[in-house]
Amino acid sequence: MDRDRPIGVFDSGVGGLSILRALRAELPGEDFVYFSDAGHAPYGEKGEEFVSNRSLAIAVDLLEQHRIKGLVIACNTATAAAVHLVRARHTHLPVVGVEPALKPAAALTRTGHVAVLATRGTLSSAKFKALQESLKDQAEFVLVPCDGLAAAIEAHDEPRIRELCRRYTREACCFGTGPGEIDTLVMGCTHYPFAADVFRELLGPDVQLVETGQPVARQTRRLLEAQDLLNPAGSGRVQWHTTGSAQELQQAASRWLGL
User: Fold this and answer.
1) Among 146, 165, 173, 189, which one carries the catalytic annotation?
2) What residues form the catalytic site here (predicted)?
């Protein structure tokens, strides 16, 4: 039955595990195939054409090899570059992308000032610029490209993670709850929630941290439900595939998801 088929989830590396975590919480009976393209990471520092080609190739692989019933592009950079291309090429397939959570942040901020930390590829994309433009009357967004942070999280390099988080939050300046201060931080890359404890330590308890996992999981449920593809009685199994180190993916899944 089509309901028994898995949901495909892919990212340039392990950052998409933050989305998978939210998906498994929202859809505990579903089976998943997680594809880490770590052999070609980081996407955020590659050109748009490269990312588009990789995204299309991975979508085909997941369809042909695993007969997925839905696809979650758990990468902001890949979503910006290729979600429209994947949808156009596979019109029958429910496809969910991720984008920095500017809309929730605009609704949450009290000061009207929001910092967006993301990859250079995401922040320079037409899709992101259109999203920012649509919300320009709701908040002021300070954009900070975070070169190297996703790679440091990928490598679980804690001193480097801390150094880069400190550097990029200082670049955003200045955080707080007073007039003109930034009271909301958008973690605009799926890797960054795994550095949430560091951001919290640096910024204090009054600054709100916003990620995209839960909205993505809810949208995935809606799309599958609309096509009668939900499988609430499944096993919740995850298959793992990577173009990089299988050991590193296994360690990350154990560290962050308890798998």
Assistant:
1) 189
2) 75, 189
| Residue 146 annotated in active site | no
Q: Do residues 90 and 8 lie in contact, with contact meaning Cβ atoms separated by under 8 Å?
A: no
Segment 146-189, tens digit of pLDDT: 999 988 998 889 999 999 999 999 999 999 999 999 999 999 99
Domain boundaries 102-210, corresponding CATH code: 3.40.50.1860
Locate the DSSP E strands across the chain.
7-11, 32-36, 70-73, 95-97, 113-118, 140-145, 184-187, 208-210, 238-242
Residue 122 in marked binding region: no
Q: Is 31 annotated as a binding residue?
A: no
- Predicted confidence at residue 77, as pLDDT, reads 87
Name the architecture of domain 2-98+213-257. Answer: 3-Layer(aba) Sandwich (3.40)
How much is the pLDDT for 58?
98
**Which is catalytic among the residues 75, 146, 165, 173?**
75
Catalytic site includes residue 75: yes
